[in-house]
Amino acid sequence: MLATKNQTKTAKLLGTTFDTVNSAMYRAVERGLKRRSKNTLYKHISIDEKSIKKGHEYISILSDEMTGVVIGAIKGRTKKSVDDLCTKSLTEKQREKTETICTDMWNPFIYAAKEYFSQAKHCHDPFHIVSYLNKAVDKVRRREVKQHEELKHTKYIYLKDHMNLTDKQRLKFESIKDANYEVSKAWRIKENFRDIQFRQSAEEALSIYIQWMKDAKKSKIPEIIEVVEMFNRHLKGIVNAIETGSNNARAERLNGSIQELKTIGSFLADTNYA
C-alpha cells in the first residue's frame, strides 16, 4: 500500500480484489484503535483542521503536541464535531490531566478548549498568529501597489522566510525595504512578532506582547490595527503561547501524512476516526 498509494493497484499486485484490500485497511485501523490505552496521559495537545475538499469540507484533528500522534479525527469543524472529537477521543480523566491545549482562533476550537480542557492553559498557535499578520502585510501591498509601480511582483518577497529568498528577490527587497512604504513597515511589525522569544515567565510574556502591540499601533496602518485588535480579543491565548512555547507545528506536519492517506483511500470515508 505504501509503495502503490492506491488500493486498486495494491489489489492487482496481490492478486486479490479491491474490497479485500479496503476491508483489511479498515480492520487494521479498528485493531489499532482498540489497542489504544485509555490510561495514556497527553499533557500537551493540539486541535487543528485539515481541508479534504478545497474550502468546502474539513476534518478536525486532536493530536499529541509532543509526539505528533493522532489521538482522534472527525469530519467537520463545527461545535458538534469538536464535541464528539473531545469526548470520544479522550476520557474525562485524560482531559483533566492535560496541561496545555493549542488551537487557532476558530471559534469551535476555542469553545472546545474552554469546555473540555478548562484546567489547561489555552494557547493560540504562533504559526496561525503570524499567518494573520502575513495576510495583513499582503493587503497593504495590494493597496500600495496601485500607487507605486516598483511594488509590483513583490508579494512573495514580503511573505517568504527571508532565508529562502532567491538572489534576485533579495536584491529587489534590499532596493525597497528602506523606502517609506507602509508595506515595508507592516513587514517589520510582522517580523518583530516572529522574533519574539517564546518560553518566558507569565509576566515577561505579557510585557513582551504589550510592547509589540504598542509598536504595532504606532504604525497607524489600518490593516495592521485590525489584526492587533483581533489579537487583543484573544490576548490570554497569545500570551499563554509566548509563555509556554506551545504550538501546532507537529499537527501541521501531520497534514502531509493525511494527504497521503487521502491518496491511498477515502480517509474518514463514512465513519469517524475519533
Give the quaternary arrangement of the chains.
single chain
Our count of domains comes out at 3
Derived from helix and strand composition plus strand pairing, the structural class reads alpha/beta
**Mean pLDDT, nearest integer?**
86
Terminal Cα span: 23 Å
**Per the principal axes of the C-alpha atoms, what is the gross shape?**
globular
Total strands: 5
Major β-sheet strand ordering: 3-2-1-4-5
The largest sheet, given as strand count, sense and whether it forms a barrel, is: 5 strands, mixed
Uncertain regions spanning at least 5 consecutive residues: 266-271
Write up this protein:
The chain has helices at residues 7-14, 18-35, 79-89, 92-96, 107-116, 126-144, 155-159, 167-176, 182-194, 202-218, 222-233, 235-244, 249-264; strands at residues 44-53, 57-64, 70-75, 100-103, 121-124. The chain is α/β, with parallel strands linked by helices.
